[in-house]
Amino acid sequence: MNKRFRYFILLLGFIVFISSSLKFNLSFNYNFVFWSAVISAVIMDWSLLYVGEFNVEFTETITVFIYLFFGVYVAVVYEFIYTLLGFLIGYITGKREFNLLRYLFNVSMFTIITFISGRFVEILRYNIKLPYITMLIFSALTFDFIFLVLNILFLTIDKSLEQNKFFSFKNYDFPILSLNLIISTTLSVVLYVIHGAIGLVGLILVFGVLIIIHYALYLYNKINFKTSLIKRLLITTEDLIRHGDLKEKCDYLLLHLKEIIPYEIASLYFFDAKNEDVSYPISYYSNCELDIGDLSISLKNGITFNIIKKGDIYISKNIKKDGKIKITGKLLDPIDAAVFVPIKINSEVRGLIFVGGKSNLVDFLSQDINDILNILSSQMSLALLNYDYMLSIKKEAETDVLTGLGNRRLFDREIQNLVKLKNRFSLVIYDIDDFKNVNDTYGHIVGDEVLKHVSGIIKRSIRKTDIPCRYGGEELVILFKDLSKEDAFVISERIRRQIEASQLFVGNKIVRVTVSGGVASFPDDGHNAKEIIEKADLILYNECKNKGKNRVCIYPGIVQS
Fold first, then answer.
1. Which domain of life is it from (predicted)?
2. Rounded-to-integer distance, Cα 84 and Cα 11, Å
3. Which of 57, 88, 346, 466 can pair with 462 through a Cys bridge, CB separation 3.0 to 4.6 Å?
4. Could you state, in order of their start, the residue ranges of all structural domains in the chain?
5. Tens-digit pLDDT profile for residues 115-132
6. With 60 as the cut, is the pLDDT of residue 53 above it?
7. What is the per-residue pLDDT across 445-465, written as a single tens digit (0 to 9) for each?
8. Active site includes 248?
9. % the chain with pLDDT above 70
10. Taking a C-beta distance cutoff of 8 angstroms, is the pair 51, 146 a contact?
11. Radius of gyration from C-alpha coordinates of the chain
12. What's the Cα-to-Cα distance from 6 to each of 57, 140, 155, 176, rounded to whole Å?
């Protein structure tokens, strides 16, 4: 529906332009005025002043002046040429992403709006008698007002069709638009009067002054925009460097980051690329249906990670055509552009902030926001350093010596805290298949190596905020903070596959190692820690161990009593 509307406007716009071009006939002096106006408008268009969904600009001033000076048909030709040149120069200079249909739609839209506004004012002027100056001001104000209203109307229809829902007028900053209307009307009348009083030289000088004023306002707005973003970002991230639960802080950050960056998907990762194979987001937010597996990043020879590990912010305004990154699966549909913000500690990349979005993100990225992204990266680096320091203090007393995982004491404390605070979590209990046979066949030393081997794979395959522990004997458990049972299953099943595919050499022999796992979650499967553990243990033995092993099952499943 959106494309049909755009094609209709495009066709109508070209018809209006061609019919107006047939009546375009100017003398040399008037041609000079016309092309001076086009050049001035293109220069000002290059430095648009973005405010919300609209732009504060003086280009409308020149459109109104051209209408007052030449009439509606020349104004239509001017608007078509200026808008087309503006978009082309914007693409060449990198300020706009190339989108042919969108460009031609905008060119046609402004052409039609100029024609309707001009013809409407001509009808009013024919039927209303006013003094010369009053009529001049009335014509300029009416033309600009209709131009503005139609602009809002066309954009609202287009966005509503694109988003398949009504695009509210509340998204427009009407005080700014009203100010823009007053300024454009006043300046266009001044231009007209100056040309009549001083002539061509005076008009060119005023065009030059307009460009200088516009550029000065552009610089002011750009600085003000950045300052505002930085203040909001610092307020959002200030809690990250304090002590506390890192997972909750990351959730808070992504939730409030949407108020600063217009994203559809955002995810946050912490990892150790030297010792981990894959990284899952500690926290993620999405407007579409994605599971945690869709957002996993391969840390071994992945095309995208080769860009990330360089440590520089990478912006892709068209992910489908960008050969330097590789985004596949469900993630391709909801986003067109993406930003990769590495989190560095001592020059080593230890994490990533990923943001993906549609055209509004592309527009946002065109506003030179690298400084903001660098601040975001620095704040997250401090948060990660703080978290690592806290872990190092606790590690010695709460680590299982053999496996390097957390011990039972750590697990009991963490799960009780989560239940007490009523925080959502999931867990998987793994049991190494046929572990007794391994001990009986190869001895306890090899059994210890199997435990260390499996534990190493687990540590390399989970998020930094997940808690892996040795529960007892050959049972290992992972506590997934604030993760649904479905997402916990995705990670648990991938770990099982990695263990199955791995090789453990004992002398010249390969010991085949597999695990079975039971997944349960709070509060879905129980009201306390004991119930959750029992449910995971029940599904582990009834559905996995008794039905072939080397499986991961979710409670409730089909439980045999």
1. Bacteria
2. 15
3. 466
4. 2-233, 246-393, 399-554
5. 999 999 999 988 988 898
6. no
7. 899 999 999 999 999 899 888
8. no
9. 91
10. no
11. 32
12. 24, 29, 11, 27
Q: Encoding tokens for residue 372?
A: 């903001």
Find residue 286's DSSP bridge partners: 265
Burial of 531 per CB tally in 10 Å (0-12, 13-18, 19+): middle
Does the structure show a pLDDT above 80 at 510? yes
Q: How far is Cα 234 from Cα 114, in angstroms, rounded to an integer?
A: 44
Q: Name the helix (H) or strand (E) containing 226.
A: helix 200-237
How long a stretch of residues is the chain? 561
Between residues 103 and 143, which one has the greater pLDDT?
A: 143
Domain 399-554 adopts which CATH fold? Alpha-Beta Plaits (3.30.70)
What are the distances in angstroms from CA 34 to CA 41, 76, 136, 199?
Answer: 11, 12, 20, 14
**Tokens at 486, concatenated:** 């479905």
CATH of 2-233, one of 3.40.710, 1.25.10, 1.10.1760, 1.10.730: 1.10.1760
Task: Determine the Cα–Cα distance for residues 329 and 239; give it in Å rounded to an integer.
Answer: 35
Hey, which of 14-28, 59-73, 524-538 has the most confident mean pLDDT?
A: 524-538
Q: Is the pTM of this model over 0.85?
A: no
* Residue from 264, 474, 493, 543 carrying the catalytic annotation: 474
Per-residue model confidence (pLDDT) at position 560: 37
Residues of the chain with pLDDT > 90, as a percent, come to: 33
Handedness of CA 395, 399, 404, 405 (dihedral sign): negative
489-511 as b/e: b if 16+ CB within 10 A: bbbbbbbbebbeeeebeeeeeeb
Contact 341, 353 (CB under 8 A): yes
Over residues 364-381, the pLDDT tens digits come to: 887 778 888 888 888 888
Higher pLDDT, 61 or 514: 514
Amino acid at 420: K
3-class secondary-structure state, position 325? coil
Distance CA 21, CA 34 (A): 14
Tracing tokens 């029992």 back to the chain, one arrives at 534
Distance of CA 139 to CAs 41, 178, 193, 314, 554, Å? 21, 17, 14, 49, 72
H helix runs in 128-199, sequence order: 132-163, 174-197
| Tens digits of residue pLDDT in 311-328 | 889 988 888 888 888 887
Q: 52 vs 56, 255, 531, CA distance in Å?
A: 10, 20, 51
> Can 246-393 and 399-554 be said to share one CATH topology?
no
Question: What's the rounded Cα separation, in Å, for the pair 257 and 244?
Answer: 19
CATH fold of 246-393: Beta-Lactamase (3.30.450)
How does DSSP classify residue 436?
Answer: H
Which are the contacts of 238, defined by CB distance < 8 A and separation ≥ 6?
A: none
CA distance 311 to 347: 8
CA angle at 27 for the pair 21 and 28, rounded to the nearest 5° = 115
| H or E segment to which residue 47 belongs | none
**How many other CB atoms are there within 10 angstroms of residue 296's CB atom?**
18
Backbone angles phi, psi at 297, to 5 degrees: -125, 125
